[in-house]
Amino acid sequence: MVERSGNGQSRRGFLKAGLAGGAALAGSLAAGRVLAADDPAITQIQDWNRYSGDGVDAHPYGMPSPFEKDAVRRNVAWLTADPVSSVNFTPLHKLDGIITPNGLCFERHHGGAAVVDPAKHRLMINGLVEKPLVFTMDDLRRFPRVNKIYFLECAANSGMEWRGSQLNGCQFTHGMVHCVMYTGVLLKDILAEAGVKPAGKWVLAEGADSAAMTRSIPMEKALDDCMVAFAMNGEALRVEQGYPVRLVVPGFEGNMWVKWLRRLEVGDEPWEQREETSKYTDLLANGKARHFTWAMDVKSVITNPSPQAPITHGKGRLVLTGLAWSGNGTVARVDISTDGGRNWKPARIDGPSLPMALHRFYYEMDWDGSEMFLQSRAMDEKGFVQPTKQQLRAVRGANSIYHNNGIQTWYVDTNGAAENVEIS
Ligand code: MTE
Ligand code: CO
Known about the structure:
This protein has 424 residues and is α+β, with helices and mostly antiparallel strands. 12% of the residues lie in helices and 28% in strands. The model is unreliable at 1-29 (pLDDT under 50). The structure holds ligand MTE and cobalt (II) ion (CO). Ligand MTE binds at residues 105-110, 152, 154, 178, 207, 209, 211, 213, 240-241, 254-255, 257-260.
């Protein structure tokens, strides 16, 4: 037994004795350090080992360890004119698994984050319905509830990368995505209560924020898997994510997931066609625009190593990890290349593989310390394969902002530092 003596003497003794027996293991411990008997992290008693910690009344709402202060959302000041109609990004390189913690879900607002009093919030249904209705939050909770894990990706995610590599870090190139478990009710149950008239083909969803953001959802999708959600990861929605209630439109572009949802108008044409200019289209090289591109295409990114998360442990065993997702369903497979797409090897998907949710992949390798061009390529259950950026540009040109699902390349140098590059 190790005794807690102030000078660490007995620990040192224990380690020396232990070393002889463990020596035979050293060769196979490729990912471990050499067991140094004079490592002060082992031989000296630390303060947290010496003094009592905070009591149970110190943190009514728990926060991450102060040593995790870099795991924060970040924005790019020059991207938008002001931070109110803007975006910040999920720190993907600091996360693992498939669930995004509530405080780290990227935010995209057109008029800032509205702070809505749930007691005064109403959800109205009008338009082509038998019975226009108004629901309080209490009313919504009386419908049967469902729990579903879905990713939300802004159509503009990776939008700055259309013309070439630009932002140095997966947080900025791919961080307009998050994945949480939603609790709420099915939109179809609410629509059934109001009774959709046969001519009703679209559901116009409107937010209660200052931007009164409005998008149209095709009736087929509305009656399929859309949710009116009031909780994420087990607690009430965060203000930034639309508290007290938001629309969940699985697999479809984030813009349709109206936050602070206050109105559902059933109509016979999409709201976007009532306006002179329709939003969220993809401008092609020939001047035409792609319209109603709702489902998010199959996509993946290596989160570690990446520019904000270099390799710091030197050569030898390396766990490469990242995320993959598809608006078409589950991700069937992810391949990894360390040489810029010449050779591919399958990665290991671990954790739940759920339709329209993030998938976590790992690729365990032995890094010999030479430079690498890291890429990941996802394939979804429908057989769609993530294209290279060149393939994408050949079809869409470089004018687009939205729906860039091209393969990302990180150049890793011999020191383990990583950089956003493109291979031509
Ligand atoms: N809903 C309202 N009411 N107002 C908004 O500005 N932004 C949309 C959508 N819903 C928005 C909104 C966009 S463009 C995206 S990508 C998602 O919300 C972002 O959701 P998040 O902030 O929860 O990440
Ligand atoms: Co968006």
